[in-house]
Amino acid sequence: MARGIKFPKTPILFQNFLPRRLRDTEQLKTPSKLVAIHFQSCDSSNAGGENSISSISAPLRLWSIAILLLAAISANAETLTVNVTTEGPREGVIAILVFNSKKGFPNKPEKAFRRTRVPVVAEGPVECTITNLPYGAYSISVLHDIDDDYTPDKLLGFGPPKEPIGFSNIDKKLLKQPSYKSTVFTFSAQTNEIAIVARYVL
Question: Looking at residues 72-97, what average pLDDT do you find?
Answer without folding.
Answer: 88
